[in-house]
């Protein structure tokens, strides 16, 4: 996917679709195994041995951030780490940064999201807590938030507090879930893997020197053209929590949420081509109208293997 100024993101024929395939957390396996990590287009092959069910669960987020910053010299943590868990670009100082800061964050456990997407042309910072002031320069700050009640409340409160102190802050809510038919009630559609594409669109727009209002408008427009549907072979389990056996052997769930929320249906395991056909029909369904697409449109397809 290439970004060419405002030409690409203003193309009314471009829509986005993502397919999220949720897998187990690697540390739930009580044996030694190799894990391939993909972060910022780098590949690290390493071996990990887990003898307990994440006895150090409280350190998982801190360890991830430390490893990320040590691996990539273009990243740094904010003063106050580890109590303040914020990853930001090393060249982003609120006093000298002359671009719109693009920031995201939320609950941990979906790595590399969101800290793994901090870098040139994407996020300026990823935060879990009060970090908006530290990255907001004179051009302002755009918050990209997935549509979950806790994320909206926390980021919304932080944004309002920053505004009350004179900072320019805009917030874009991403809800790209296509698993369940409308109406979706007060909460609306859940935010899923398509959020990454909004990061890229907003990051590229900010890097091109657009104003805060323009960057926010491009991000909102992109978010309205994205559809995602998840397929899970097992229910995700957070470190320190009891593993759920809700699916059972030989079963798969269509539309499972990223926190293990129930999806659209639990069905028998199906061949990959059958699953893909169903997922695409759901995402592109003219009845739901989630993704405004017609024959001949350009489409960006992202297949996500972990969330």
TrEMBL record:
Q: Name one GO cellular component term.
A: cytosol
Which InterPro entries does its entry note?
DhaK_dom, Dihydroxyacetone_Kinase
Q: Which processes are annotated in GO (biological process)?
A: glycerol catabolic process
Recorded superkingdom: Eukaryota
> What sequence ranges are listed for the domain DhaK?
56-307
The UniProt entry, under Pfam families, shows: Dak1
Could you cite one Gene Ontology molecular function of this protein?
glycerone kinase activity
**What protein am I looking at?**
DhaK domain-containing protein
């Amino acid at each position: 996917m290439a970004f060419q100024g405002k030409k690409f993101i203003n193309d009314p024929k471009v829509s986005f679709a993502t397919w999220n395939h949720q897998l187990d957390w690697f540390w739930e396996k009580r044996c030694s195994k190799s894990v391939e990590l993909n972060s910022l287009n780098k590949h690290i092959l390493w071996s990990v041995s887990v003898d307990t069910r994440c006895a150090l669960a409280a350190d998982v987020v801190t360890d991830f951030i430390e490893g990320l910053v040590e691996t990539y010299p273009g990243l740094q943590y904010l003063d106050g780490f580890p109590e303040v868990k914020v990853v930001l670009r090393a060249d982003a100082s609120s006093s000298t940064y002359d671009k719109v800061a693009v920031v995201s964050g939320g609950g941990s456990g979906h790595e590399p999201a969101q800290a793994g997407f901090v870098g040139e042309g994407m996020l300026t910072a990823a935060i879990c807590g009060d970090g908006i002031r530290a990255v907001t320069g004179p051009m302002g700050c755009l918050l990209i938030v997935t549509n979950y009640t806790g994320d909206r409340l926390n980021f919304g409160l932080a944004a309002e507090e920053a505004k009350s102190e004179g900072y320019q802050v805009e917030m874009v809510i991403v809800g790209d879930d296509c698993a369940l038919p409308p109406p979706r009630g007060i909460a609306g559609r859940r935010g899923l893997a398509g959020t990454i594409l909004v990061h890229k669109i907003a990051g590229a727009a900010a890097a091109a020197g657009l104003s805060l209002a323009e960057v926010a408008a491009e991000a909102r427009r992109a978010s309205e053209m994205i559809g995602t549907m998840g397929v899970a072979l097992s229910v995700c389990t957070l470190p320190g929590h009891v593993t759920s056996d809700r699916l059972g052997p030989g079963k798969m769930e269509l539309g499972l949420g990223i926190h293990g929320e129930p999806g659209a249906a639990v069905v028998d395991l199906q061949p990959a081509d059958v699953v893909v056909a169903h997922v695409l029909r759901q995402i592109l369904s003219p009845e739901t109208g989630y993704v405004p697409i017609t024959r001949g449109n350009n489409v960006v397809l992202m297949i996500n293997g972990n969330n």
